Amino acid sequence: MLNHLGLVDALRAFRDGRASPGAYLAACHEAARARTDLAAFTFLVPELSVPELTAQDGPWGGIPVGVKDIIATADMPTTNGSPIYADRVPAADAWTVARLNALGASVLGKTVSTEFAWRHPGPTHNPWKRGFTPGGSSSGSAAAVAAGIVPLALGTQTFGSVIRPAAYCGVVGFKPSYGAIPRTGVHPLAPSLDHVGLFTRSVRDAAFALSHLIGQDDADRHGRPLPAFALDLDTELAPRAAPRLALVRTTLWDRAEPEQHTMLESAAAAFRTAGAQVSDLTLPVAFEGLWDCARLLLAAEASACFGPLVARFPDRTSQVLKDLVAEGARIPAVAYLGALHQQAALRAELDTVLAGYDAVLTLPASGPAPEGLASTGDPAFCVPWTCLGVPAVALPAGTHEGLPLGLQLVGPYRTDRALLSTALWCETALARPLAFPAL
């Protein structure tokens, strides 16, 4: 099926004349309309608009993208997952959306987010099993890529909102280093932790997309662009040869389900067989404080961000958001400043801890997607790496009772290209065929 082509494969098909941008866009739009049962989108461009999208000039002309509903789009609603903004159309595009438009890509629609990217869930179902969560808060983006609707979707991660839904939905999720992709036009949750991330169906596509989306914008004062790397249709990411992987179980190991333990151990064995060095690594005791550090930063900053909103709209904000605001309001300034110092110190220390390794191999979640839509699952297995701001990749690695299982690879800060090269090697060693859920 034409809509099953990934980002790079679709662009090559356009260049070589094997497919037209118009036909590809139409196939993706048809797939979106065929899977309305997923409730992955809050807004989908009208069918009559699809031919107009093919007229976009640029190297990505014909590529549809899903954009999380906390990322501003000037020509369609951006609700932030909240009834407060149900009818809001922003005056300007987010930096990432403007960049996609400049490349010639088209926003096919806005994907479901939890309320302000926190824990009050949206209506999206897991594409692999109805009635199971796709994860959150980037629920719709993960589901749309997994279902074959778009080859690329934008998400955000403050705790685990790219890596966990990617693992639950069986796609590649990439959270770059903190500051790598400007967040201008993205509604904040906790600026010291917020990242823009990507969902694709392959590591190659994630690397290609990242190479075009890294940048700097003066309006994002936390931005720190990565060392530039250029990838195009003729210059692909090369896999790292026989990587050295640190198998990190963390103190949360016992919270994971047996099938998730088995999957990670099986993946480690497969990597060893393919030539990788895989060694157990226990993080220093100081890193055990990262969960509390992240929670303190999140609560304090979210309270500052949403306190006035909760006070103004008590009937249109969820209890979980109210609770977060109240928690943050009780945090002393000295504790908040101490957490910022702890975050920076441990980020720097991780370089020393990982000396001699190419990446950490660890869990992205406690197991497969939980049943029910009342929760988006446990983000705790992603939290320390998000707090450190280091790059992380979720890879599909197995299934359990029809639901995907994933693994997580993590690298030192600002080593995004090297981590993606390691992830490409791991993806090849796992040799999992690309699969799509049945309609």
Keywords:
35% helix; alpha/beta; 11-stranded mixed β-sheet; 14% strand; Amidase signature (AS) enzymes; 2 domains; 439 residues; 13 helices
Detailed description of the structure:
This protein has about 450 residues and is α/β, with parallel strands linked by helices. The chain folds into 2 domains: about 1-280 and about 360-430, Alpha-Beta Complex (Amidase signature (AS) enzymes); about 285-350. About 35% of the residues lie in helices and about 15% in strands. Helix 7 runs antiparallel to helix 13. The model has no long low-confidence stretch (mean pLDDT about 95).
Secondary structure layout:
Elements lengths: L6 H10 L4 H14 L6 E4 L5 H4 L10 E5 L26 H9 L2 E6 L27 H8 L5 E6 L5 H7 L2 E4 L19 E6 L2 H11 L30 E4 L10 H16 L3 E4 L9 H23 L6 H11 L3 H21 L5 E4 L20 H6 L3 E9 L2 E8 L5 H15 L9
Parallel strand pairs: 2-3, 2-4, 7-8, 7-9
Antiparallel strand pairs: 1-3, 4-6, 5-6, 5-10, 9-11, 10-11
Helix pairs in contact: 7-13, 9-10, 9-11
Question: In brief, what are we looking at here?
Answer:
It contains 13 helices and 11 strands.
